[in-house]
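Hi F.,

I've been meaning to write this up properly since the lab meeting, where we talked about keeping a consistent format for the predictions we share between groups. The idea is simple: the sequence comes first, exactly as it goes in, then the structure tokens exactly as they come out, then a line or two of notes. No screenshots and no reformatting. I'm using this chain as the first example so we have something concrete to point to.
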Amino acid sequence: MPLTRPARVSVAGHFGEWMQGRIGPEGEIALITLPCPALQVHASRRPAAQLQLHSAQRLLVPARLRAFLQSLNRQPLSLPAPRHAFTLRATMPPGGGAGASTAALVAIARLVRPDLDPAEIALACIATEGASDPLMWPRPDRMLWASRKGHSLARLPAPPRCEILGGFLPPTQRTDPRDLNFADISDLIAPWRQAAEARDLPEIARLASLSAKRNLAQRGPRPDPLPQLARELGALGHLAAHTGSARGLIFAPGCVPARAASALRAAGFRQILQFRAGGPV
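Output, unedited:
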């Protein structure tokens, strides 16, 4: 019996990465994402005479939507697209490093092909955009994700519980799948696994900070106010969208100072948010 296709869905984004980089100097681009339920893409569909897309934020363009639908349906590009009018709305800025583009594609897939498993959706995202976040999976922070291939390189323990306070520090930057200019983080993966297994949040924060610092040094050029803010506010460390404008401070649960949001706003951050991360399901 075929599955009923929903009329609307929401897909959570992420808030940058715990870490991202190459696995070896010339190796695969890989990341450990930071899921963020506070950031969502909302999508709806209705019957229409022809394919339509309404997205004031330009999360997708019609040509990319058409290619994605054809990839989902395993059809030649010459076949007509399904007759739907899609509306997309995001609570995160496109190019912010919060997964708006991937979340939009995952939402479209769940509207039209609820029978597909996450691995199939990931491959369609890669075929359409050339890069993907692992937002189609239920626990995306438990994998070392090959973002240019669309599959997991390794299963990982969940990071320990923590609180993230952050925002978006302009300018935005959309992911370019041809961009391979990332720092080598191969030496950070084993320590991450060990720290996650030991529930060692200070070490997790140190590793996330190191990944962010390495990539900022390599990719530049904007100075990063987060290390100084972390020291001033007593954070355990900081993290970043390695492509995009999301930046965050890592705190132990219940330890975010009351003045921290104002300090980020004064440093130029926009859309300040605070959310819990890590821990078991």
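Notes:
The chain has a mean pLDDT of 92.
The longest strand covers residues 29-47.

If this format works for you, I'll send the rest the same way.

G.
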